[in-house]
């Protein structure tokens, strides 16, 4: 991989985002790491720069701020950085029922995982198209194939990411830009602690879990091959196919039966 390639990774401070940064640095890519926690980003940047002798830039930003995507791109312009690879990984999910959650929290969830994902692609894809090469990975979820869950925006949001990614891939692939929706299932990271669902997740069978580096390897291979959708892991592939034919009425019942907010 040419060292002229530069990748921007959001949510790079831990989990799948940090593993994407490690994987791309190992392929001699320069990196721009984006997240809210400067200490985590600085530590990762130092690790990758020393291990792989690549350029690593840090941009501290909160993607729940509507101004963040454009501010990030402006910062890139000031630093003279053109982005060839975009990893839209930053995530957020509520831990309370819809009506028990204040609007600012719901708006932040939508901003981080819908608006910022879409806006960053809209801002950075034109440069990729002009240069005739680009890769965009939008981290969706196995939940995108699942029935809706009572009170959860998450399944709807991830379904949007899945469909939006495929639509962008159709438009951009003729110009050398591949877009892939990466749809992992249960992945060992900080996400479930942040969601407040760590206890419930810990009770799940080990066969359902993947490590972040496994997810990243499959996702990067998929986008390089031009696959618009990647469901990593054999078990997840089976589950995604099994969930698709479920009738809408059955989906509704399932969504209420497995309600994480039920008391």
UniProtKB/TrEMBL annotation:
Q: Which InterPro entries match?
A: KR_dom, NAD(P)-bd_dom_sf, SDR_fam
Which SUPFAM superfamilies does this UniProt record tie to the protein? NAD(P)-binding Rossmann-fold domains
Can you say what this protein is called? SDR family oxidoreductase
Q: Name one Pfam family in it.
A: adh_short
Species source reads Aeromicrobium halocynthiae
PANTHER family per record = NADP-DEPENDENT 3-HYDROXY ACID DEHYDROGENASE YDFG, VERY-LONG-CHAIN 3-OXOOACYL-COA REDUCTASE
Q: Which UniProt keywords apply?
A: Oxidoreductase
Domain Ketoreductase intervals: 5-151
Which family is it part of?
Answer: Belongs to the short-chain dehydrogenases/reductases (SDR) family.
């Amino acid at each position: 991989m040419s060292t002229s390639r530069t990748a921007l990774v959001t949510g790079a401070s831990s989990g799948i985002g940090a593993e994407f940064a490690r994987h791309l640095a190992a392929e001699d890519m320069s990196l721009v790491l984006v997240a809210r926690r400067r200490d985590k980003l600085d530590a990762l940047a130092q690790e990758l720069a020393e291990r792989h002798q690549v350029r690593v830039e840090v941009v501290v930003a909160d993607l729940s701020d509507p101004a963040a995507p454009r501010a990030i791109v402006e910062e890139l312009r000031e630093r003279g950085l053109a982005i060839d690879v975009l990893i839209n990984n930053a995530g957020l999910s509520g831990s309370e029922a819809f009506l028990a959650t204040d609007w600012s929290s719901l708006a932040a969830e939508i901003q981080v995982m819908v608006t910022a994902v879409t806006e960053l692609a809209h801002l950075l894809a034109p440069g990729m198209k002009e240069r005739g090469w680009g890769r965009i990975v939008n981290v969706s979820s196995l939940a995108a194939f699942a029935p809706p869950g009572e009170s959860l925006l998450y399944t709807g949001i991830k379904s949007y990411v899945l469909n939006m990614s495929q639509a962008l891939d159709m438009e951009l692939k003729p110009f050398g830009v591949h877009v892939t929706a990466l749809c992992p299932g249960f992945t060992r990271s900080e996400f479930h602690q942040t969601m407040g669902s760590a206890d419930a997740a810990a009770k799940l069978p080990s066969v359902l879990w993947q490590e972040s580096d496994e997810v990243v390897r499959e996702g990067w291979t998929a986008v390089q091959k031009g696959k618009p959708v990647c469901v990593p892991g054999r078990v997840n592939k089976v589950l995604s196919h099994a969930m698709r034919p479920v009738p809408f009425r059955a989906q509704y019942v399932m969504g209420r039966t497995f309600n994480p907010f039920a008391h």
